[in-house]
Amino acid sequence: MHTSYAIVWREDDRPSHAGKLELRARGLRLEGNGESWELPFEDIATLRVGRGPDDRLVGRPALVVERRNGRALRIATMAEVGTLAELVERIASFGVRESSSKRLLVVAPLRPGSRERVRALLQEGPPFDPESVSLVQHEVFLTDREALFLFEVNGGPADVGRLLGKPSVWKATAAWSKHLAGPPRVAEVVYAWRRPRPDSEPADAPSA
Q1: Pick from 93, 98, 140: which is nearest to 115 by CA?
Q2: Which residues of the chain fall short of a pLDDT of 70?
Q3: What confidence score (pLDDT) does residue 161 get?
Q4: Strand, helix or coil at 166?
Q5: Which domain range does residue 42 map to?
Q6: Which pLDDT does position 174 carry in this prediction?
Q7: Which element (helix H / strand E) includes 167?
Q8: HEC readout, 95-145
Q9: Which of 98, 133, 160 is a domain's end point?
Q10: pLDDT at residue 180, rounded to an integer
């Protein structure tokens, strides 16, 4: 039995199609606007979730499927929060590599003079139980103009979807709305460096 999702999809700069995606044993089958085609898993290079304006479809974050031929396919699910994360996790279970980082930085611009009120909100702690999701680290940085939320997840993307689906998170968003100068946005990683762990060194590495 094939699993299907209601979606909007687009290949590169071609027109978007509303239709459905079927997750099959050997790949994806997409249908919409009288068109249908199949994409084998072996033709997929990487996956990532695109949240920027160039990646979104119908205002929603999209799954960006990077193909081995250099073309990209964007897929937005039309169901409830967390469905896109579920789709990513299921495709990844077939051995397709995810290229998205497990660290996520969300930047929330603040209204002038709201820093201390925002600080009070932050000191109440997060509107969710960090132990209930696979968070390795969660920090919030505050300036006069913005709050920066750092999430590090040690799990699949579905964990983030379950977190965003919690009612308490949306209630907190309502409490924050009066202090926001604009919609929160996800920061793009353009450079990263991490010191290798000692246990990642070759076994025959010479000792100092």
Answers
A1: 140
A2: 1, 81, 98-102, 132-134, 153-167, 170, 189, 192-208
A3: 57
A4: coil
A5: 3-98
A6: 81
A7: helix 167-176
A8: CCEECCCCEEEEEEEECCCCHHHHHHHHHCCCCCCHHHCCEEEEEEEECCC
A9: 98
A10: 93
Residue given tokens 């913005």 in the structure block: 146
Q: What is the model's pLDDT at position 172?
A: 79
Nearest to 5 by CA among 59, 51, 63: 63
pTM above 0.85, yes or no: no
8, 90: one domain: yes
Task: Say what the pLDDT of residue 132 is.
Answer: 66
Residues 68, 29 share a domain? yes
Residue located via tokens 């990263």? 192
Residues 94 and 123 grouped into a single domain = no
CATH number of the domain where residue 94 is located: 2.30.29.30
Measured between alpha carbons, how far is 52 from 61 in angstroms, rounded to an integer? 8
14 and 75 share one domain: yes
Residues 66 and 121 in one domain: no
End-to-end CA distance of the chain: give it in Å, rounded. 57
